[in-house]
Design a protein that fits this description.
The chain is built from 1 helix and 24 strands. By secondary structure, it is an all-beta fold.
C-alpha cells in the first residue's frame, strides 16, 4: 500500500523530541522534549498541543495502569497526572551516576519498564540499561552503554530490541516475558555512520520501524532483519516513532533541532517538528507500567 503524504503536526518545535506514546484510552499522543524539559500531549479530537514543564531533563515516559505517566528524571522516577498537572515522587535514590540522565524507555506487556541511562554530555560508555518492576528497585541489566535506544518488543513478547546507538547496530535479544530475563542477542540491523539507530516501534505484522538519526529516514525491518521499506523524511535527525490514532494507523515521528547551524536550520526547517504519516500498516497498543509489579498471563 502506498504511503500517504507526511505532514507536520502542530506548530510547536522541540529541542529534543523523544518517546512518543499513544494513549488509546484518552485518545491522545504524549511525547517529551528532553532539553526543554517538558512533556507534551497532542489531543486527537481537536489537534491541540498541551505542554507541561518538568523540573529536570525528562528522558522518557510510560503510560501506567492507573492513568498517570511514569516519568524518568535524573534524580527520580515520578508520576505525572495530566488531569491536574501534578508531579509526585514514585522512586527516589536512583543508582544514577553524576552527570547522567535517562534516555529511551519502553514497557513490556507484563508492565516492566525498561530504560537506559547515558552521560548527558560526553556520550562515554558509562550508561546502564535498567529494568523496573513496580516500586523497584531499579535493576541494572547491561553496563557500558553510550546512547541507549531502540527499545521495543516483538508482538509475542519473546524478542527485545535494543541499540547502543554509537555501535551503529540494533540487537535482537531473546526475552522471557514470565521472568523479564534478557537472553542471547544477535545483530538485527546495522547502519552506516554517521547515521545511527534511534527510537523504534513495532507494527502489528511484527516489523520494526526505526528512526535513523543523521540519516533522515525511517527504516522498516522484517522480523528476520531484512530491510523492507525506506521512508525519506524532511528532517536529518528523526529521533523516535510510534503508532497512534484511534485505529493505530498513524505513524508519529519526533525530531530534534538542537546543536544545528543556521545553514542546517535553513536546509531542514521542520527540524524539531512532530510529524505524521499513514504507512499502510497498523501498530500495537502501548503496554502500560504496572505500578504494583508485573502482571501475569
Amino acid at each position: 500500500m502506498a504511503l500517504l503524504e507526511l505532514q507536520r503536526v502542530g506548530t510547536q518545535s522541540d529541542i529534543l523530541g523523544e518517546c512518543p506514546l499513544w494513549d488509546g484510552s484518552a485518545n491522545c499522543l504524549y511525547w517529551v522534549d528532553i532539553r526543554r524539559p517538558a512533556i507534551r500531549r497532542l489531543r486527537h479530537d481537536n489537534g491541540q498541543v498541551d505542554t507541561w514543564t518538568m523540573p529536570d531533563l525528562v528522558g522518557s515516559i510510560a503510560l501506567t495502569d492507573e492513568g498517570r505517566l511514569l516519568v524518568a528524571l535524573p534524580s527520580q522516577m515520578a508520576l505525572f497526572d495530566p488531569q491536574n498537572g501534578e508531579l509526585q515522587p514514585f522512586l527516589s535514590n536512583l543508582p544514577m551516576r553524576e552527570g547522567h540522565r535517562f534516555n529511551d524507555g519502553r514497557c513490556d506487556d507484563r508492565g516492566r519498564f525498561w530504560v537506559g541511562s547515558m552521560h548527558n554530555i560526553s556520550r562515554a560508555p558509562e550508561g546502564t540499561l535498567f529494568c523496573l518492576e513496580g516500586a523497584g528497585p531499579l535493576k541494572p541489566v547491561l553496563q557500558g552503554v553510550s546512547i541507549p535506544n531502540s527499545l521495543a518488543f516483538s508482538p509475542d513478547g519473546e524478542t527485545l530490541y535494543f541499540a547502543d546507538s554509537l555501535h551503529y547496530k540494533i540487537f535482537a535479544h531473546d526475552y522471557t516475558p514470565d521472568t523479564g530475563q534478557m537472553g542471547v542477542s544477535r545483530v538485527f540491523a546495522e547502519s552506516k555512520p554517521p547515521a545511527f539507530p534511534d527510537g523504534s516501534a513495532v507494527d502489528a505484522e511484527g516489523f520494526l520501524w526505526n528512526a535513523e538519526f543523521n540519516g533522515g529516514r525511517l527504516l522498516r525491518y522484517a522480523p528476520d532483519g531484512r530491510l523492507d521499506r525506506v521512508v525519506s523524511l524532511p528532517v536529518d535527525r528523526p529521533t523516535c516513532c510510534a503508532f497512534g490514532g484511534p485505529d493505530l494507523d498513524i505513524l508519529y515521528i519526533t525530531s530534534t533541532s538542537q546543536n544545528m547551524t543556521d545553514a542546517e536550520r535553513q536546509a531542514h526547517p521542520m527540524a524539531g517538528a512532530l510529524m505524521a504519516i499513514r504507512p499502510g500498516v497498523c501498530g500495537l497498543p502501548e503496554p502500560r507500567f504496572a505500578l504494583r509489579g508485573p502482571r501475569g498471563n
